[in-house]
Every structure is written in structure tokens, then in C-alpha cells.
Amino acid sequence: MFKNKIYNYLSVEIFKNFITILFTFTAIFWTVRAVNFLDLMIEDGFSAVIYFKYSLLYISSILTRLIPLSFLLSIIISIAKFERQQELLILWSIGVNKIRIANIFFLIGFLIALFQITFSLFINPYTLNKSRAMLRETESKQINSVLRSNDFSDTFKGITFYIDKKNKKNELIDIFIKDENNSLNTIAGKTNGENDTTIFAKKGAVVDNKLVLFRGVIQTLNKKKEINNVKFEKTELSIDKLSTRTITQPKIQETSSFLLLLCLKNPFSLKCTFKDNKKIVIENLSRRVGMPLYIPLISVLASFLLIYRKENKYNFLSKYIVFTLAFIVLIFAEILLKYTGFSFTYAATYFLSPIVLLIILYSVLLKKMTATRIS
Length: 375
Prior knowledge:
Blueprint: H1 2-36, H2 39-42, H3 48-56, H4 59-84, H5 87-93, H6 98-137, H7 143-146, E1 151-153, E2 159-166, E3 172-179, E4 185-186, E5 196-207, E6 210-221, E7 227-238, H8 257-265, H9 278-290, H10 294-303, H11 315-337, H12 344-374
Antiparallel strand pairs: 1-2, 2-3, 3-5, 4-7, 5-6, 6-7
């Protein structure tokens, strides 16, 4: 019973450090990513609410990518703490088996690997796809935030805006609009069916999702290359058809794992949008399933720190050596991941490497701990 409490204490400490490090890193990386997403408001005219929701939905993806490194740091820091507070020495003195402690580290690594697989396979694709769908389904664009004084704006597909300035009432002064795909239509339908439209206006404003223009001219070029000019005192242009250059189609990391497996099995399925990118599909699936397999391997590497005694003058170097080796393993996994889509050999190597290394290192660890206990 007493030993079970010790094992629970060690497990809780490692999990506490892991969660603290993981959420700290996630907060930092999410903040940097959120700054990059500011273009959604500045360039594409989405509201602050949409920007905030879109940014939040990326948290799970960032968190998942940081799990292996966070686990490595947490287990190294935890072992260093146990050693510094003489807790490991007390455990060895009362006869606690080092192999049992190593097995606990491995079990924690295994549980965290399952956690990452769950997020990678199911939660991340769902949240990322939801964020993309939110942009796709959002119709209201804040044009006033996109249009800036004395600047050309091509935020919207096929349309170029130029505004000389804005007054204190947020009205647009001296407006130039080049519409190449007939996205803007006057209420009177003057531009319907035309290929190319150029609009000049002295003043304008965005009112009720419509662009209201005053004192200007609409110049259209039809299919017969004939130019027609229509002067107006006031006209309203519907902006419902405006679409930004923001990518609204789901990317591969935003696609469900089931659909990616379907593409892998039947590339010519109508549901498969990545039929020409089999390499990318394999690489993405490998990241979702294969990367977590390296986490238990890290736990076994960290367990080698249990062998060295504190009084050894080279003991302080062991932490740096183990951390460096484990970090190299993670880098190796990232590099090999890029080649998984090229051939079956690379993919098999990527998935089998952590398993083979785990068996070898665990055997060496078991042998060394047994020899240490006997001596």
C-alpha cells in the first residue's frame, strides 16, 4: 500500500510538470500564431469575433504538436527534482525496485501517446475543419476595415478598390473600383451580364451590407468590346457576392482521418479531394499515428537517469546527455516523417524504428538495473 502511494506520487508529479510545460508552450505558440491571424481582420475584413473563434480552434493543433517535447522536458525535470530532494535515494533505501519506476515512466509515456493519437486522429481535424468552415460560411465582411486611404486593395477576388481618403464620418472619398468578374451589381442591374466594370464615385459609404455611391460613373466593357458609360447621382452595390482570397477549402490537415484512409484505399472516390497527392496523405496519416509512438521511447531513454548515483562526479552530465539523445530522436522522427510518402520502406522504417529501439533500449536498461541491484 505504501509503495503504491509512492508510485502515485511520482506519477502525479510528472503529470503536473507535463501539463504545466505543455500549456505554457501552447500559450506562447498560440499567441504568436494568433498574431499571424490578424490578417483575417486587417486584410480580409472578418470581425474580431470570427478572428478570436478561429484562433481558439487552433489551440488543439498547437497543443498536439508540442506534446513530445513537453513530455521529454517534464520527465527530465521531474527526475532531477526527485534526485535533488533526495527522494530517489530514499526510495532505493527502502527497497523500491528501479525497474518498477522505469515501468511507471513507460506507462505514463504510453498514456500520453494514446492522448496524442486521439487528438491527432479525431479532435484536431474536426476543430481545424470547423475553423475553415466558419470562414467559408461567414458572409458579413467589414469592408471599411479593409479599405484604407490612398491604397489599392485586392482583398476580394476579381475586384480592386482604391480610396483616396476617409473623412471623420468614415465616409469614402474619391472611389475607384475595378470589377473583373461581375461580383458587384447595381440595384438597377446596369452591370449585369457585363465582363468588365469600372466605377468612379466622388463619395461612398457602407450601409446595411451595401456599398452606397454618390456622383459617379459606371463604365462597362461587354463581350463585344463595346464601352458603355452610365452616370449616376446615387447607386447601391450589393456586396453579398464578395469573397476574400482567404482559402476556404479544407486543407489536408483539416480533413478527417476516415476520409484520408478512404483516399488511400480508393484514390478515385468522389469524396477524395487529394487523389493526386497520395504522398501527402501518407505523410499526414503517419504524423497522426506514428509520431506518438516515439513518446514511450523517450520515457525509456529518460529511465537511464535512474541508474546513475548522485555522488558520481559525472552525474550532472547524464541529464544533458539523455536530453540530447531524446531530442535527437524527435528530430530524427520529424525528418523521417517527410519521406514516409515516397515509399513503403520509408513508411515502415518510420513506424518500426521506435518499436525496435524501444525493445533494444529496454533490454539494455533492464540488464543495467539488474546489475546495479546485484552490485
